[in-house]
Amino acid sequence: MSVLPDESRSLPPPNIVNHNSLLFGGIGWAAVVLNNVGYHRPALGSGVHRQILGLSIGWFIGYYATRRENYYYACRDRALFQYIKHHPEDFQLKEKKKLGEVLDPFHPVR
């Protein structure tokens, strides 16, 4: 995994509880539970310390995946807004139409 550049530090940190943390934490916990099942141990009752460790490692990976995701989208947004700023002729506002001008006339058939 590549290290994020220093300009990513200007972004606000993501929440501790986010979708990637929940997802990867659940995957880490499930991996330990499935390992318990594979070795014919009680699934939830044995190796609780390993379950907590798997959850913690997955949570950590999910948090940093969210940081990377936020940095990627910030770079993409910056590039798109810069393009829009330098090419305003491609992004002119269209005149607003009323809904009646857009739709065809309605003639009910009974």
UniProtKB/TrEMBL annotation:
This is NADH dehydrogenase [ubiquinone] 1 subunit C2. It is found in: Mitochondrion inner membrane. InterPro entries: NDUC2 (IPR009423). It comes from Alligator sinensis (Chinese alligator). It is a single-pass membrane protein. GO terms for biological process: mitochondrial electron transport, NADH to ubiquinone. Accessory subunit of the mitochondrial membrane respiratory chain NADH dehydrogenase (Complex I), that is believed not to be involved in catalysis. Complex I functions in the transfer of electrons from NADH to the respiratory chain. The immediate electron acceptor for the enzyme is believed to be ubiquinone. GO terms for cellular component: mitochondrial inner membrane. PANTHER family: NADH DEHYDROGENASE [UBIQUINONE] 1 SUBUNIT C2-RELATED, NADH-UBIQUINONE OXIDOREDUCTASE SUBUNIT B14.5B. It holds the Pfam family NDUF_C2. Belongs to the complex I NDUFC2 subunit family. The keyword Calcium does not apply. It comes from the Eukaryota. Keywords: Electron transport, Membrane, Mitochondrion, Mitochondrion inner membrane, Respiratory chain, Transmembrane, Transmembrane helix, Transport. The keyword Mitochondrion applies.
